[in-house]
Specification:
The chain is α+β, with helices and mostly antiparallel strands. Among the domains are: about 90 residues, Beta Barrel (Elongation Factor Tu (Ef-tu), domain 3), CATH 2.40.30.10; about 130 residues, Rossmann fold. It is built from ten helices and 17 strands. The model has no long low-confidence stretch (mean pLDDT about 95). Bound molecules: FE2/S2 (inorganic) cluster.
Length: about 325
């Protein structure tokens, strides 16, 4: 029998909860705000969302707004890839200094539908700055790369990684972090969080099509040990055999407790297969590659289908990512 997942909302219990989904009867966690009569709360986050809604006059809390932010510096690190340092409030920088953090950015001269979700690679809570890598690909990222001195920024958002509870809950263990191409951007905050909790990290970086390791400088500052390997064969879209063997060897020898995958869905699928071939109960976390448009659970562009046929909006929902990639 396929068990239904206990879903978790990334915003539950934060200052942005209850959100628009409470008003439309689509709250991810609260059965009463879904229109049912009884409380069926299965994932208590320390706050009753229904009570918060009622106490707030049956209205949602104030939601995230656009902030006009100055660009401190832009550095082209390779063809079509720019590293931007952006000035934000110290509070926002602290809120973004965690795994999975991202913001929506847009060129100040463009309308709202140019909002582009961008991972936060690093955030400095004392200086009030965030570092973001922009890979110019389509109309929205081209607009971000044009020479304006400011961006509109909407945030903070946190669901850029699935399996966050494993990253946040792990202490004094060994982890393996694998990241490729622009997927290297979120791995910096993942490594920082894990190292701060006394974990030891082995890191595999693949330059991917960018031809450069965008996270290497940041990871070296944290004294991380880095191996350079190709983690995805571009013809077969599988993990090359020698890399599979390397991962298996590292996982067994170092008794790895968690593997993080930052890259395409093909990489995630390959890593899940490797984990399934290994002994022990290795946890899995990965970058959330769904297409984010609103980030608020409204538009449905980030929806994925689970094995039981249900659909979840991954901009809001935290779930064990193996439920998405297992068996693909
Ligand atoms: S991005 Fe709009 S619902 Fe998730």
């Amino acid at each position: 029998m396929i068990m239904h997942q206990v879903l978790d909302c990334i915003d539950a219990g934060t200052e942005y909860c209850p959100c628009f989904l409470a008003e439309t009867g689509d709250c991810i966690m609260c059965s009463q705000l879904q229109g049912r009569e009884f409380c069926d709360c299965q994932n208590w986050k320390g706050v009753c969302i229904y009570q918060e809604y009622i106490w707030n006059g049956s209205r949602i809390k104030e939601q995230r707004k656009d902030h006009l932010c100055r660009i401190i510096s832009r550095r082209q690190i390779t063809e079509g890839v720019v590293l931007c340092r952006i000035k934000v409030s110290t509070t926002l920088a602290r809120e973004l200094n965690q795994p999975g953090a991202y913001v929506f950015l847009r060129n100040v001269n463009e309308p709202g539908y140019f909002d582009t979700p961008m991972s936060v690679m690093a955030a400095d809570g004392r200086e009030g700055t965030i570092d973001i890598v922009i890979h110019t690909k389509g109309a929205k990222t081209k607009a971000l790369s044009s020479d304006s001195g400011e961006f509109y920024l909407r945030g903070p958002y946190w669901n850029g990684i699935l399996g966050l509870k494993y990253i946040k809950g792990l202490r004094n263990s060994r982890v393996l972090l694998i990241a490729r191409g622009v997927g290297q951007s979120p791995v910096v905050n993942v490594a920082r969080k894990l190292l701060a909790a006394g974990n030891e990290a082995t890191i595999i970086l693949d330059k991917g099509r960018l031809g450069i390791n965008i996270a290497e400088e940041y990871l070296r500052e944290m004294s991380c040990e880095i191996a350079n390997k190709q983690v995805l064969d571009l013809n077969s879209l599988e993990i090359p055999k020698d890399t599979v063997e390397y991962i298996q060897k590292v996982a067994a020898k170092r008794q790895i407790r968690l593997i993080y995958s930052g890259g395409t869905e093909k990489l995630h699928e390959g890593i899940v297969k490797i984990i399934d071939s290994l002994e022990g109960n290795i946890m899995f976390a990965c970058s959330n590659n769904a297409k984010f448009c609103c980030g608020e659970g409204i538009c449905g562009s980030c929806q994925v289908r689970l094995q039981d046929g249900s659909r979840i909006r991954t901009c809001k929902t935290q779930i064990n990512p193996r439920e998405i990639f297992r068996g693909r």
